[in-house]
From TrEMBL:
SUPFAM superfamilies: TPR-like. Pfam families: CHAT, TPR_10. It comes from Brasilonema sennae CENA114. InterPro entries: CHAT_dom, TPR-like_helical_dom_sf, TPR_rpt. It comes from the Bacteria. This is CHAT domain-containing protein.
Length: 825
């Protein structure tokens, strides 16, 4: 449990930070390590403590001491405003408080220059503020900049005047209140004013930055001639690129190219837009490789540049470059997971001598990157060119065996398809939905929605998620909601482009489409023979995060399926889990089942998971939307007293009704990424919400428990899209494994077939057939019932009674059968 810090400790931290800030003159290399070691204290308590402590301290101090302390507080506020770690929202609040307190000493009358500097910094803080109303924050930023300009005049402080004009222009360009056209005109005026000081000769970087921002403003302004505005934007971007070269400022270079490409696209010059976006993407992808600080930095950068790939896809479609469009779709998705799976599987994909050479390339590139990033290179330009050569050599060698990442070629991937498999890959743009339909012949066609379809989809998703919070309403309306989704996605029209002989379908959703049972979408709704999508494909419907990940897991040859590792009812409150695992266990030659209190994280860590062919988790699951790494499978020994005060959400999971769990004792996604499942053929997550993903992450959007197990080594993962029913899930899982062992040799794709057959069986199960199923498993059911507590037996009897009331097909509602999906091979 987290130990909460006293106010005295916060005051000690403030005094220590301000002393270090003063002694180092605000050197981040000195101050940031101290902040990093105290990240747990960079919170609202520190902000309130700073306001009280600093107000009292400044009031009591002599004038010269107060001025010195206020200066240290401003420097500290500048540092924490830019501090890359901790909670960004809290950091900004601390900075704002620091500036506001300092202004009680740095008044306009007493210290006008310090006052103006602090106002400018306060304006930056409000411009970047996360909390509060965005519109009001921008108004406060504008007011602060305008205050600063009352001191920072062109004649007295030309550089500071130009800098503040630029900041003011940025705020006006983002302003929400007032007329947009007028706001942009004020932004353009302020940018042009700053260029009186920011000349190419005197301040080339600032000049280029202002030209870039001016170009953005021209691109969006609606006053004057549209074509003329775009021409002015193009000129400004081209001017910025004179300074923003690839060698000197690669990230700015990419940003200006992106803006320039958009301007060309808006003038309908798609060839120029294509070439410009291509150059921008090449820069972005080289930038991603140059960053060696952390994988988190790479993910954030990928998210920042995601719109560039979307624009490129749009332009490729305009130029009828369909194959390139889908390649750029792939390059924008699941990049982090693709890289990590490649690293994990490298020794099984490539010959030993190739692995050795790839590792040499990796080490030399990493060393060169470090030298460039830390200023240690004797000739950075020559070294950068050398690294580009090494990357090209590495990619050429790697692509001979498995083209992935920036070297991914769709044609080589598609050649692996059999003649009866088709694929649909969705991609959501800003204004429409795309569906790439990939046929066995290699032909790719594209369905494009109307803008109103995308809005309808967004509205539908919002309503679905709202209903999901009200279980009964969501469950009862699920069938009708899926009909609406099928209509919005025009699934019937898309299916007309798939050849009739195709008996297997692979779906690659995008963003929030990963959350829904697309295999259960109704088709031919207006005919008498209306069925579900999965009914049309005898070999099933499977899912994949991306073509590249599917390509990689297809190389995992795992023929054996004889040994089982299982987690069984660790919280002892799932009434049918014991039956489920007991029957499934009987299908395997050998098994290791951790039952109830024995199903602990320690026991899993000691179980040598790497030796098993199948891992089955029958327990509670939870998906953390705000921090997916903390998504978890709940294990024994994880329960804690719900009365503990103010539990840390990073370490504890509270599910209500007195159920609180210590995540250190659970199998979280962060821990799953570290597992090794090199002999595993299948992971089944028979638990709630195990198939949900972080759909808010617009770059590497497939981050969830399935991605963890794919990375760990399993080629196939079965998981759930919602809080599933205990009883129907146990029936479904029993039938699923029964089907698996009926299929010959467990060939690739049999997981999808077995799941389809099990779902069809459950969906069409009559009361009489259910009785026969119970009779077949009577010994196991009797044994499980005998182990239940009196209260649990009562619940079981009541559930059977409710089932009989749902005539004639008690599990026909998609809630019971459609929640599980098969991902991967």
């Amino acid at each position: 449990m987290k130990i909460y810090t006293s106010e005295e400790e916060y005051i000690n931290l403030l005094e220590q930070v301000l002393e270090v800030t003063a002694d180092s003159r605000g050197n981040p290399q000195v101050v940031y390590p101290l902040l990093e070691n105290n990240r747990d204290k960079l919170d609202d308590v520190l902000e309130k403590t700073l306001r009280r402590w600093a107000t009292n301290r400044l009031r009591e101090a002599q004038a010269d001491v107060a001025k010195s302390i206020a200066g240290d507080i401003v420097n500290f506020s500048n540092l924490i405003q830019q501090f890359p770690l901790g909670d960004k929202a809290s950091n900004m609040e601390i900075a704002i408080t620091g500036y506001e307190v300092a202004l009680t000493v740095h008044t306009q009358q007493a210290f006008p220059e310090d006052w103006a500097t602090t106002q400018n910094n306060l304006g930056l803080a409000y411009s970047n503020r996360i909390r509060g109303e965005r519109a009001q924050n921008l108004e406060q930023a504008i007011a602060a900049y305008q205050d600063a300009l009352s001191v920072y005049t062109f004649e007295a402080f030309p550089y500071e005047w130009a800098r503040t004009q630029n900041n003011l222009a940025n705020a006006y360009s983002q302003r929400i209140r007032g007329e947009q056209a007028q706001n942009l005109e004020q932004a353009i005026t302020a940018y042009q004013q700053s260029l009186n000081v920011y000349t190419f000769d005197a301040f080339p970087y600032e000049w280029a930055t202002t030209q870039n921002n001016l170009a953005i403003a021209y691109s969006y302004t609606i006053i004057g001639e549209g074509a003329q505005n775009l021409e002015q934007a193009i000129t400004a971007y081209q001017d910025a690129l004179k300074v923003y070269t690839f060698d000197a400022f690669p990230q700015n270079h990419a940003g200006s190219l992106f803006g320039l490409g958009i301007a060309y696209q808006n003038t309908n010059d798609f060839t120029l837009a294509y070439n410009t976006f291509k150059s921008a993407i090449a820069t972005v992808e080289s930038l991603r490789e140059e960053i060696v600080s952390s994988e988190e930095s790479k993910r954030k950068q990928a998210e920042e540049w995601n719109k560039l790939y979307s624009r490129m896809v749009e332009v490729c479609l305009e130029l009828d470059k369909i194959t390139e469009a889908i390649e750029y779709v792939e390059r924008s998705k699941t990049r982090y997971l693709v890289e990590q799976i490649l690293i994990r599987d490298r020794k099984t994909i490539f010959p030993a001598d190739v692995v050795t050479q790839l590792e040499r390339y990796r080490d030399e590139i990493a060393t060169g990157q470090d030298q460039i990033q830390n200023g240690k290179a004797e000739n950075p330009k020559v070294l950068a060119q050398r690294l580009q050569q090494l990357r090209q050599q590495r990619n050429e060698l790697q692509n001979r065996y498995l083209p992935v990442g920036y070297g991914f070629k769709f044609d080589s991937f598609q050649a692996r398809f059999d003649e009866c498999t088709a694929m649909i890959e969705w991609f959501i743009l800003d204004e429409k939905i795309l569906a790439f339909i990939i046929k066995p012949t290699g032909e790719v066609t594209v369905w494009q929605s109307q803008p109103e379809d995308l809005q309808a989809l967004i509205d539908w998703v919002n309503q679905y998620l709202q209903n999901y919070g009200q279980k009964d309403q969501w469950q009862n309306s699920l069938g009708e909601e899926l009909k609406k989704l099928a209509s919005i996605l025009h699934i019937d029209g898309i299916l007309t482009q798939i050849p009739n002989h195709c008996d297997k379908l692979i779906l690659i959703p995008h963003r929030f489409l990963h959350l829904f049972p697309l295999h259960a979408l109704p088709v031919n709704q207006h005919s008498e023979n209306s069925r579900c999508l999965v009914d049309l494909f005898p070999r099933g419907v499977s899912y994949a995060p991306s073509c590249q990940i599917l390509q990689q897991v297809q190389k995992r040859d795992r023929p054996n399926f004889q040994s089982l590792f299982a987690i069984q009812n660790p919280t002892e409150d799932l009434n049918y889990t014991d039956l489920e695992v007991q029957v499934i266990q009987s299908y395997f030659n050998t098994s290791n089942v951790l039952k109830k209190t024995a199903a602990t994280l320690t026991a899993i860590n000691n179980s040598d998971l790497n030796t098993y062919h199948c891992a089955h988790f029958s327990c509670h699951g939870y998906f953390n939307l705000t921090n997916p790494g903390k998504s978890a499978l709940i294990l024994a020994n994880a329960s804690v007293a719900d009365a503990l005060p103010k539990l840390n959400a990073e370490s504890y999971l509270s599910l209500g009704l007195g159920k609180t769990y210590d995540l250190e004792e659970c199998l979280t996604l962060d821990k799953i990424f570290g597992l090794k499942l090199e002999k595993c053929r299948l992971v089944t997550l028979s638990a709630c919400e195990t198939g949900l993903i972080d759909f808010n992450n617009i770059s590497d959007e497939y981050i969830g428990l399935p991605s963890g197990f794919l990375l760990a080594g399993s080629p196939s993962v079965v998981s759930s899209l919602w809080k599933v029913n205990d009883l129907s899930t146990s029936f479904l899982m029993i039938k699923f494994y029964e089907n698996l062992f009926k299929l010959d040799n467990l060939e690739a794709g049999n997981v999808a077939i077995a799941l389809k057959q099990a779902q069809t069986w459950l969906r069409n199960l009559t009361i009489e057939e259910l009785k026969r199923f119970k009779e077949e498993h009577k010994p196991e059911i009797k044994k499980v019932l005998a182990q239940l507590r009196k209260g649990q037996r009562k619940i079981v009897k009541e559930s059977w009674k409710r089932i009989k009331e749902r005539q004639p097909l008690p599990f026909a509602n998609p809630y019971y059968w459609a929640g599980f999906t098969a991902s991967g091979r």
